[in-house]
Amino acid sequence: MATIPDKDARCRAIEALIAAGAGVCESCRKMGVSEKTFYRWRKAQAALPHNS
Questions:
Q1: pLDDT 10s digit of each residue in the chain, 52 long?
Q2: Are 28 and 38 in contact, with CB atoms under 8 Å apart?
Q3: CA spacing 20 to 30 A to 28: which of 10, 35, 38, 49?
C-alpha cells in the first residue's frame, strides 16, 4: 500500500470542509481522497491516544 505523507493534514482539511457545511463526498473529492479512505483515516486517528 502506498504511503501518503500528508494524510493527517488532508483528513483535517476534509473535516474542516465538512464543518463549514460541505458534504462528505464533495469534501473528499476536493482533496482527492475516497470517502472510504477518509473514514478509515478518521477511525485510525480516533484510536490514537491524544496528549492533552
A1: 666 778 889 999 999 999 999 999 999 999 999 999 999 999 988 887 765 5
A2: yes
A3: 49
- pTM of this structure: 0.78
Quote the CA–CA distance of 48 and 1 in Å, as a whole number: 21
Parse the chain into domains and list their residue ranges: 7-46
The 10 Å CB-count burial string (b at 16+, else e) for 8-31 is eebbeebbebeeeeeeeeebbeee
Q: How far is CA 45 from the centre of its chain?
A: 9
Q: Which three cell numbers stand for residue 52?
A: 492533552
